[in-house]
Amino acid sequence: MAATEASGAAQDEYDVIVLGAGPTGENLADRAHAAGLSTVVVETELVGGECSYWACMPSKALLRPVTSRAEAGRVPGLKDAVAGPLDAPAVLAHRDAVTSYWKDDGQVRWLDSAGIDLVRGHGRLAGPRRVVVDGERVLTARHAVAVCTGSRPVLPPVPGLAEARPWTSREATSAKSVPGRLVVVGGGVVGVEMATAWRALGSSVTLLVRGDGLLPRMEPFAGRLVAEALAEAGAYLRTGVEVREVRREAPGGPVTVVLDSPPGPGGPGGTPRDEIVADELLIATGRAPRTDDIGLETIGLSPGSWLDVDDSCRVTGVTGGWLYGVGDVNHRALLTHQGKYQARIAGAAIGARARGVPILETDPWGAHAATADRRAVPQVVFTDPEVASVGLTAAAAERAGYRTRVVDHDLGAVAGAFLYADGYRGRARMVVDLDREVLLGVTFVGPGVGELLHSASVAVAGEVPLERLWHAVPSYPTISEVWLRLLESYRG
Ligand SMILES: Cc1cc2nc3c(=O)[nH]c(=O)nc-3n(C[C@H](O)[C@H](O)[C@H](O)COP(=O)(O)OP(=O)(O)OC[C@H]3O[C@@H](n4cnc5c(N)ncnc54)[C@H](O)[C@@H]3O)c2cc1C
Ligand SMILES: NC(=O)c1ccc[n+]([C@@H]2O[C@H](COP(=O)([O-])OP(=O)(O)OC[C@H]3O[C@@H](n4cnc5c(N)ncnc54)[C@H](O)[C@@H]3O)[C@@H](O)[C@H]2O)c1
FAD/NAD(P)-binding domain: which residues (predicted)? Predict the structure, then answer.
């Protein structure tokens, strides 16, 4: 059946209704359809969601030239060829192409070819199994409604901030020109990636962090190495500061950020009163669920809350068990690949329940139990150096009560790294569960480590015994030889 644009819909009753066509909604619809269920997706903006247009894809299009140039600049014989600045207009133009110029025709064609209907508009629940689109079109679901509405950026309650119309991740990934001076608030993933990108594109960047370092949820050496590299790139980092007030006198004019901290020496635009003046301000302080206006109150749930789900992603406390919350909206792991993973699991569970399968495989690692989104979440931060981690950090493993041993290795000391770049700097850590002798977590920091990560994901999710990992021989001379060094250190 052809993807249906709002009014000319062929039917109003489906087996499954999917609210939101981000990466999670698309994959959920695909899995439900593959299970033989008629499926419709409701989308209020662009099919492809945040990831395709204002998050993963445009941000990585901005960062790829940055990391490529940095890496080439460390290769003897190649350094001089990349000595100049980035061609910012060309980078921005490529970013525009990567987002298909913020048009979703390609993704709509995919839905169409997959036999999934599309209804454009804002969907709201209107009681059990009913969704009303733009107040007009009523859809009913025989089996399930899956809420895949994602998340949006949060603005902290700082006086003057909203009025100053700061950049959020949306503007930071879609801006058409390079601001002269950019202040970034927040030292999480969006903060460090966007500080890296815009600094390399030519902005004077000041990164304001209220804690004592960057990437606080990762191993401490990750934030330290990224902070060192940002400083070397000319960005200015201030830790232990809070934004007290923001002022922008005229739309499009400079913005003043007033800090709640002892006066510092001042970065670009810094003044003795500890105010920073910039051309743009990016707020990267986390996300809120897009559940404030989806009719949750009509089924007894609280609007604006993250959806509490079981491991099959079924929302808890809903009579009849017909409601699912998948992807960012359930707050289990706010990453595209984890949303897609949950969609595969939830889609299988919806299909099995629709077929009347009496007992689902809901034990950890079962076909109907999202498990990796708690125990083996991989993430790559695309900065220079890259940070790639999976599973638990040493601190998180200790908090969880495991008996652990932490093994570290200097990534720059393996032969592959020596060849990869002059003065390669990086570090690797594995966190071992001493009782089972399997890995709980692995972190790599260094140029190019993003592509190493899946080896660690396989080891952590597969709970591969270390004595078997000893037989997984890394090729010489690759950076993967760090696996051998880590295991040698562990075995002594
Ligand atoms: C700057 C940035 C960079 C990122 N980079 C990465 C990365 O490199 N790798 C990674 O894995 N993750 C990355 N993420 C996270 C990633 O973007 C999210 O985890 C992912 O987009 C979540 O997918 P989703 O489908 O759950 O939600 P979304 O992508 O947010 O999609 C939700 C969809 O639902 C629609 N919708 C909402 N409400 C309604 C409604 N009432 N009716 C109809 N439709 C509705 C929205 O319009 C949207 O299309 C990044 C995030 C940001 C902000
Ligand atoms: N490469 C990737 O995988 C990638 C890239 C970007 C974003 N993402 C995902 O998107 C999500 C959102 O990223 P994010 O960076 O916005 O959120 P985040 O939660 O990763 O980081 C937000 C940071 O802001 C800080 N903060 C909160 N309130 C603050 C305040 N009032 N003042 C100063 N600092 C404050 C927090 O302590 C935290 O360190 C994350 O879950 C992330 O995993 C992933």
Answer: 14-337
Interval 300-318: pLDDT, tens: 999 999 999 999 999 999 9
Annotated binding site for FAD, which residues?
60, 123, 149-151, 328
Which residue is closest in CA terms to ligand 2's atom 27? 285
Contacts of 482 (CB under 8 A, 6+ apart): 409, 411, 414, 417, 428, 444, 452, 474
Q: Residue 269's pLDDT band (boundaries 50, 70, 90)?
A: low
Question: For residues 7-37, b (16+ Cβ closer than 10 Å) or e, as one string?
Answer: eeeeeeebbbbbbbbbbbbbbbbbbbbebeb
Residue ranges and CATH numbers for the domains of the chain are: 10-48+104-152+288-372 (3.50.50.60), 162-285 (3.50.50.60), 385-491 (3.30.390.30)
Ligand at shortest distance from the CA of 313:
1
Ligand that lies nearest to the alpha carbon of residue 145, given by its number in the listed order: 1
The arithmetic mean of pLDDT across residues 58-75, rounded, is 96
- The number of C-alpha atoms within 13 Å of 27 and in the hemisphere containing its C-beta is 19
Ligand 1 center to 150 CA (angstroms):
5
> What separation in Å is there between the alpha carbon of 93 and the centre of ligand 2?
26
pTM, entire model: 0.95
What is the CA(263)–ligand 1 centre distance, in A?
38
